[in-house]
Structure formats: structure tokens, C-alpha cells
Amino acid sequence: MPPLERPESESSNPDREGPPIREENCYEERERELLQPLKKADTLADGASHRVIEKQGAHQQSDLEGLASSRGQQFASVSRELLDTFEFDSKNELLRPDDYEVYPNFPWVIDAPQCFDDAAHQGLSLEDRAFLRFFFLGEEIEVSAFQRKFGELGERFVSQALDLEVARLTDRRELELQNLFFSSRRTYGGSTVYLVGDLPSHYPTSSGPLEIELEGSSFSLSDAIGCLDPVEGIAVEFGCGGGIQLVNSVLEHPGLLEIHGYDLLARQRNVARFVSYLNARNREELDKIRIHQNQADLLREVGEGTVSLGIVPSFLVVPPPIPLTLRQSSLLAESGFLSVVSDRPCFDFSKYLGVTGWGGEDGLAVTLPLMKQMLPLLRSGGIAMACGDYAFRGDTPLIVEKLEDYKDADSLTWSFEKYEDEAFPYTPDVLVEMTLEEFRLCVPGASGARLRDRIERAIRESLSRNGIDYIHGGVLMIERH
Questions:
Q1: Nearest CA to 364 among 330, 309, 314?
Q2: Which of 437, 431, 415 is nearest to 471 (CA)?
Q3: How far is Cα 101 from Cα 46, in angstroms, rounded to an integer?
């Protein structure tokens, strides 16, 4: 792996890394912003005024604290038994069309609603399809169906789901999940893992914000962790979300003694604990997983130079705000996706993308500071990993360039394994088309040459401003020697 070399011309600049307090708290700041009403002042990189218009009627979701309790542990046991009895993971695989090549990497068909409308369904019965629609799409199902299909086990599942407010009864005595869905995947080593997340926002059954997102880079990272030589000792994850990497690490690397993670969102922490209940095969594995409320709590238990595996979250390279016409802005007035830049209403992709849009225009607004905080924790031979779509300048990821002045750069080497996907790289031309397509999906009636010109100008100026030649997905690894 190439070393991280400190440029001689810049190594003497003590201010290069920026204000330490902001770097230490960047993830916490972004988490707290998510918990506050979308109404505040901020400043863009170019200094323009950036005011976010308050979203109307935002849905406040439950923290699901019961899932992290002893009752949640009992429900996890019942859920695991029911999903195993149903052969959920095998039926999950059957849903995929023949050309859906990424399974088992991605745990469900991206366009699941359409999949259920397709013919044949590989011989799945109507009853099986109804249960899969319940678990995957959040659609309601008759309560009596659980007793018919699973007997006393089904009755316990319904009772405990209602008690924990994971599900609710409709007026027609049908059961539906509360903006959640269940899924499954197989680890690189072949273990079946059950996952829980918020319903994707494009599903008609979605009724709240997408806080616990199950997305492709998480599963690619899980596979990359599974491919590592056996890891022993301590693992740490900054921003554990719904717990997929915590569970994956304990299953794939039995030599790990402690796996620490934190997340500021209580809903994510509680689901992460439930997912660990759902997948740990014994008490020893469960006790290895330690979930903290914030980074400070985690660092009280983990010292510098002790970590064998560090996991850092990745976020998207976000297009800049796109100016809107008055008609377009009025149509989106209650969407929560608007901001005002220099007194002009704009479509704000960072709000549209939710948590994944925290990356800023170079994608590194959160990942880079967190990586700088992770590196001192690594012991000799320890590895820090991140997975996602990264900005490149030439052959080097931008994050590596920005780590070249890191204080211990001469003791670190890096590698980047690019996805073998024909969609990459995202060149400027591709990024313009992708942004235009997303914009048209969100802004009714958006079309015309002037719109394309506005988007193309904004994208190219943003890429030039940040020194980005293209974007490529893959897995970044930084090792300490």
C-alpha cells in the first residue's frame, strides 16, 4: 500500500488541519442538526447566505427504546425463530430477478414494490407473498394470518410487536410495522444476518424520516470486513447506525474481544442493540458488542494505540444547491428540501439526501475529521476502513491527499479497492446527468435547456472548486505500521 507522505512545503503549517474543536465534534454536530427543526442560518463554502426553510408537518418517530430492553431481547428471540421458521432469507433470495447479480451483497431488490407486482414470483404462495410484503414493504396483514401460519409463535410475535410499539393494529384488525422493515443478508462467511431499518422514503408505506438506512456501501463494507485476515483484540465503529457492522464484525472475526460503536440518535442505538440481540449466537458474542451514546463515552473505554479494526462512515459527494423558479419553489414549499442562497430559493440536495448527504461538496465534511480521530486509536498493524463513493484527483482519493499532512502520515499506508462496476467512474458529464435526473424526480415539470445549463454550471463549478476529477466507489483502507 502506498505511504501517506507529508508534503514538505506544507508540513510546517500548524493550522493546516483546522480548528480542533470543530473536528472533534463534527459528527455530533450533524447528528444534533438532524434532531433540531430545519430552521437555522448557515454559510456555504463561498460565503453566501444559506437559510433552510422549515419543513412543515415533520413526523416525529419513536426512539424505540423498548427494543434495547429485556423485552426487546425476548422479541428478538421470537422474531429470529419466526423468520427462521418462515425461511425468510431463502424467500428473500427468490424475489430477485435472474439478472440481479449483486445478491447476497444487497439484501433486497432495490425496487421492491415493483418486484412484488411482477409475475411468477418463483413459485411463492399468496400467503408467503403477503408476509414478505409485510416485512419488506410495511404493508398490513391480517393478525389471524400469524396464528394460522406460525401458531403460538405467531401469536407471541404479534403481542410483543404491539407491546414494544414496533407495529400497530389498523381499524380492520390488521398488523402493520411502524415505518420499519425487516431484511436479511448473508455475511462473507455464509452466516444469515437479519436487519431492521426505516422504510425507504420512495415506498408508499413510508411514514417518517429515513434515519436508519440500509444502503449498498454498508453491505460492501461488511463483505470487505469479512475478507480481512482474522482480526483479534478491539474493533471500533464511529456512527454505528442500525448495527450491521457491529454484528458483522462479531460473526466474521471471533478473535475480537470487544466491538465498540456509538451513535447519537437514540433510535439508531436502540435498533443496533436489537439487531445484536437478533443475531448474536450466544451470550459471549452479545457481551462483546458495546454501544455508547457518544464518542466521549466510547473513548473513555478505548485508549490510543489499542484498536485492531476501525470503521468510519462515508457520505455522498453532494451537488450544490440548484436555483429554482418561483413556481418550482412553491410546489416544494413543504418538502423540507428548500434553502435560500443569496435571496434565491434553491433545491438543497443535502436535505433531500438526509444523513447520506452530510458529506458536503467533496463528500468528506464528516468522514475526514472522523478518520483523523480514528487513526491515533490504531495499534501497529491496525486498519481503519471506510466504504462509499469517493472523490478523486487523478489516481488518488481526495481523502488521502487531505491526510498527507496528518501528524503520523509517515507511519501509515493506504489502499483503495475500486468497485468493478461499469457505472463508475462518475465523470463530470455523468454527474450532470445523474443530478438532472434526481432533480426532475423531485421537482414536478422540471425540464428545458435552461435547467440543464443551470445544473451543469453548478456541478462543474463545484467539482472545480473542490479539485475533483471524478467519483469512484470502493473500499478505503489505511494501515498503521
A1: 314
A2: 431
A3: 42
Which of 279, 117, 276, 271 lies closest to 191, judged by CA? 279
Instruction: Provide the phi-psi class of 64: left if phi over 0, else alpha when psi is between -120 and 50, else beta.
Output: left
- Predicted confidence (pLDDT) per residue in 207-251, tens digit: 777 777 777 788 889 999 999 999 999 999 999 999 999 999 999
- Domain ranges, residue 73: 60-198
Give the pLDDT confidence of 383-401 residue by residue, as tens digits: 999 999 999 999 999 999 9
Can you tell me whether residue 237 is helix, strand or coil? strand
33 shares its domain with 117: no
d(CA 155, CA 160): 9
Which of 198, 218, 234 delimits the end of a domain? 198
Q: Give the model confidence (pLDDT) of 5-30 as tens digits.
A: 544 433 334 343 333 333 445 555 55
Distances (CA, A) of 291 to 83, 258, 271: 25, 11, 11
What's the CA gap between 111 and 134, in Å, rounded? 15
Give per-residue pLDDT as tens, 405-414.
Answer: 888 888 999 9
